[in-house]
Amino acid sequence: MKEIQDHIRGTLKNLYAAEETESLMRIILEHVCRKPYSRILIDGIHPFSPQQQEQIHRIVDRLLLAEPIQYVLGEAFFYNHTFRVDNHTLIPRPETEELVGLILSDYTAKKECRILDVGTGSGCIALSLAKHLPQAQVVALDISAGALEVARENARLLDVGNVSFVLADILAACDWPTLLGGAFDCMVSNPPYILMEEQAAMDRNVLDYEPAGALFVPDDDPLLFYRAIAALGRALIRPGGGLYFEINARYGPELVALLKQMDYQEIELIRDLAGKDRIIKAKR
User: FRET label pair with 169: which of 32, 35, 144, 155, CA 20 to 30 Å apart?
Assistant: First the structure.
């Protein structure tokens, strides 16, 4: 065990800070040993098989290329569940958990509802909602066939059956009511919202590995996807239904103004736990 720990620390120390290296070591050992790190420490001496040693070396080698640990392991933890992820999908973020929690607090008491998740990616939002709202019917939409394949696999692994998946481009003209099966009580989206100009300040592990199409919008049209989704919401959200967005903190007031122009009501701009404008909710 000590040899393995020393190998991980020594190999990663020049690329990652000490605290992050310790976190990565814990995650690697939990993944390879298939038990909590606390249990690993309690057990003390742990003989690693040749296969386990090879697996650890492969993981560390990929981390040296700045590949995110979630892609290396093929999984990410989100809202108390483990989701499969790959380079077709974004890595779920903690602030998105706050978005899911907000929707659950608003809809748990409802006897039935239909929810549309636009740009579902790994399905982390749609499947978390479906898992905790068994009375809901959830539709998960994405432009990427690869992302939908991952989302379907996550639905199988989480044993979630109240979700359907739709391959479509939210920016394309379409008979949306027919394609999506009618009206919704709630629409939610974490769409692309990072400006191209912001790439200079971003880490290599994001730029080199996460899908650009799920991250970036043109510098001259930062509200591109919000405008399209809000317009669709006017046609699909039932009166009194909710529209929920995760947003770029730079454009909260502009998005509030846009939704007001589109006749949405009770618009709220909500800060995340880090104090940044991160969520907008509104009623149709």
Answer: 155
- The whole-number pLDDT of residue 257 equals 97
Please identify which residue in the block is written with the tokens 């199988």: 156
Q: pTM above the 0.85 mark?
A: yes
The per-residue pLDDT for 45 is: 63
Residue 268 host element (H or E): strand 265-271
Could you give the CA distance from residue 231 to residue 259 in angstroms, rounded to a whole number?
A: 9
CA nearest neighbour of 28 among 37, 19, 15: 37
Q: What is the pLDDT of residue 201?
A: 85
pLDDT at 41: 79
Fold type of domain 87-283: Rossmann fold (3.40.50)
- The residue type at 195: L
* CA–CA dist 98, 100 (Å, integer): 5
pLDDT at position 8: 94
Contacts of 70 (CB under 8 A, 6+ apart): 76, 85, 91
Alpha-carbon torsion (133, 138, 144, 146), positive or negative: positive
DSSP-derived 3-state class of residue 266:
strand
Give the phi and the psi of residue 51 in degrees, each rounded to 5: -65, -40
Q: What is residue 152's predicted lDDT score, i.e. its pLDDT?
A: 98
Under-70 pLDDT residues of the chain: 44-46
What is the DSSP secondary structure assignment for residue 166, as one 8-state letter?
E
What's the confidence (pLDDT) of residue 202? Answer: 85
Contact 247, 280 (CB under 8 A): yes
Q: Report the distance separating Cα 227 and Cα 221, nearest Å.
A: 10
